[in-house]
Amino acid sequence: RGRKRKSSGINAEYMGNLPSILRNFGTDYDKRILPSIMNETLKAVVAQYNAEQLTTQREEVSRLIRRNLTERAESFNILIEDCALTQMSLTEYSKDCGR
Questions:
Q1: How many Å apart are CA 3 and CA 83, to the nearest integer?
Q2: CB 52 within 8 A of CB 61
Q3: pLDDT by residue (tens digit) across 50-86?
Q4: CA 99 to CA 82: how far, in whole Å?
Q5: pTM as predicted
Q6: Distance between CA atoms of 43 and 37, rounded to whole angstroms?
Q7: In 3-state terms, what secondary structure has residue 36?
Q8: Where are any strands of DSSP class E within the chain?
Q9: What is the distance between the alpha carbons of residues 41 and 75, in angstroms, rounded to a whole number?
Q10: CA distances (Å), origin 75, targets 16, 46, 56
Q11: Hey, which residues does 79 pair with through a beta bridge?
């Protein structure tokens, strides 16, 4: 099984080409790259919805987060095996999204 990482209200299970990842990004890649792309992905998706939509369309939001995170992680040779939206503070993201 892959490794797990939690950041910004997303749990992600991942694996990748470890020798390539370590060579290109160093041993702390999972502390630098994953939180960054997870946060970036979450904010980009949340910005597309209002507060009501985030609660009523949670499954759609979750699918979009997974798709975007998977695509973004691929550029770092990281394969997202599973991804789940665990929590979301609307006040935190409304501030970032200007809502």
A1: 12
A2: no
A3: 988 988 998 999 899 999 999 998 888 888 888 877 7
A4: 30
A5: 0.72
A6: 10
A7: helix
A8: 3-7, 10-16, 78-85
A9: 14
A10: 11, 22, 31
A11: 15
Amino acid, single-letter form, for residue 50: N
CB atoms within 10 A of CB 8: 21
| Distance (Å, whole) CA 90 – CA 36 | 19
Q: Are 79 and 5 in contact (CB under 8 A)?
A: no
Q: How much of the chain, in percent, has pLDDT values that exceed 70?
A: 74
Structure tokens at 56: 């009523």
CA–CA separation, 3 vs 47, rounded Å?
28
pLDDT at 20: 84
CA dihedral sign, ordered 48, 3, 20, 35: positive
